[in-house]
Write a structure and sequence with these properties.
421 residues; mainly alpha; two-stranded parallel sheet
């Protein structure tokens, strides 16, 4: 942060919801606040919440997970382990499960093969073989991927594939598919579509509402699992995050109420004594209203004392008039409610540490990789690689691409070397 001159300009922090990050006394987020001497906006990944909830529901229905790639229970043992799911022919007479999967999604949301595969399988499960397109039917014949405890999109793909090929699916398998169709996939694509941090509380409210509709009457034990999970991971219920949604709300009454609360909190912050011990401690609210009719009713603002809440830190450089008119800078407009972008760089940083020694070398490796990735998409064709070289060399390169399988890797290495020079 010193190198990027961010010590005084940092306003928010994105992370997933593990206690190592979110512990209110010694979590990484809290430690960073104490080092900076100021409160930050906690944007705890809502995609992570969606996956944790799916995991807890799966374990409740099928049994605990035994290891990184091995699930317990009747269903889990069939899709995990060394060999994974044993494939069979599709049951052409499977019973469609409708659910709330959107009929269409923007192509940009299907940015990787796992998400695209999950969506096509969900639509096939929703429509059945008679109404589904050929592309959606073809999704069944793709490999669903290797199941791990960290890749729940892949787990969902395996569960849907298993359901589609079963002659007599069990009640538990059918229930898991209903959860995928009515809760997991709708929430996943809603979060990805409406990704701005101001939508975090709305996403959480939607998850509660979908869970209530699915479980409250028929499966109250599963609804209790949802409540327990959100009581531990419902960081977007915190008023500082709810207020972000309120100031962006299209209802003027809601927006004005949010601005009035911010004005009150700013006056309260002016009276706050200096010192790191007086920075409010950010925690999941204890009293979450699971019967709320809208996202801003999830908590009662009057329940929060100055040691529990402050004015939203991410808005502290904006006047009330600027907030009212949504006159925000481009940087704020690009802040997401999830931390997936950070996780990509964590993986890239780990990769750099495997191949280089020293900060400068690692930094250069990361910059090179980012630059190369922009030039070569994950679904690159041969022409993409051909167009990266000079016109005089293209014929030879194209000829090599047709005869040598390893030439693409050689070209990538050559491009990285040229960029380093």
């Amino acid at each position: 942060m010193e190198k990027t001159k961010s010590l005084e300009t940092a306003l928010s922090i994105s992370s997933d919801g593990c206690n190592t990050n979110t512990g209110h006394t010694d979590g990484a987020n809290r430690i960073l606040e104490e080092c900076l001497g100021m409160a930050l906006q906690w944007l705890v990944c809502d995609l992570h919440l969606n996956e944790i909830l799916f995991r807890h529901l799966f374990c409740k229905i099928d049994g605990d997970i035994k290891g990184p790639i091995t699930y317990g229970g009747e269903i889990g043992s069939r899709i995990s382990g060394k060999d994974g799911l044993a494939r069979a022919n599709m049951n052409m007479a499977f019973v469609p499960i409708s659910g709330k999967v959107p009929d269409t999604v923007d192509e940009e949301l299907l940015h990787n093969s796992d998400l695209k595969h999950l969506y096509n399988l969900s639509i096939l499960t929703k429509l059945g073989t008679k109404k589904a397109s050929q592309k959606q039917i073809n999704a069944f014949f793709c490999q669903p991927g290797t199941v791990t405890a960290a890749r729940w999109v892949t787990t969902a793909c395996n569960l849907l594939t298993l359901y589609l090929q079963e002659e007599n699916p069990s009640s538990n398998l059918t229930l898991m598919v209903e959860i995928i169709q009515n809760l997991y996939v709708p929430s996943l694509f809603s979060i990805k579509k409406n990704w701005h941090c101001s939508n975090g509380s709305k996403h959480l409210f939607d998850i509660i509402q979908l869970s209530r509709e699915l479980f409250e009457e028929k499966h109250p034990d599963l609804y209790e699992v949802v409540k327990k999970t959100i009581r531990k991971n419902g960081y977007y219920c915190h008023p500082e995050n709810v207020l972000l949604g309120m100031v962006h709300d299209t209802d003027e009454k809601v927006k004005n109420k949010g601005i009035q609360i911010i004005q009150h909190l700013r006056a309260q912050d002016e009276q706050r004594p200096d010192g790191i011990e007086n920075i409010r401690r950010f925690q999941v609210p204890k009293n979450i209203n699971f019967d709320a009719r809208t996202y801003y009713e999830l908590v009662d603002f009057d329940d929060f004392t100055p040691d529990m809440i402050c004015s939203p830190p991410i808005l502290k450089n904006y006047s009330l008039d600027e907030i009212r008119n949504l006159n925000f800078k481009e940087g704020y407009k690009k802040v997401p409610s999830n931390s997936q972008h950070i996780e990509r760089f964590v993986a890239l940083t780990s990769k750099a540490a495997e191949y280089t020694i020293g900060y400068q070398n690692r930094h250069q490796y990361i910059l090179n990789k980012v630059a190369v990735t922009k030039k070569i998409p994950t679904s690159a064709t041969k022409d993409v690689y051909v167009n990266l070289v000079n016109n005089t060399d293209r014929d030879n390169v194209k000829k090599k691409l047709c005869t040598e399988q390893s030439v693409e890797k050689e070209l990538v290495s050559k491009i990285e070397s040229d960029m380093q020079v």
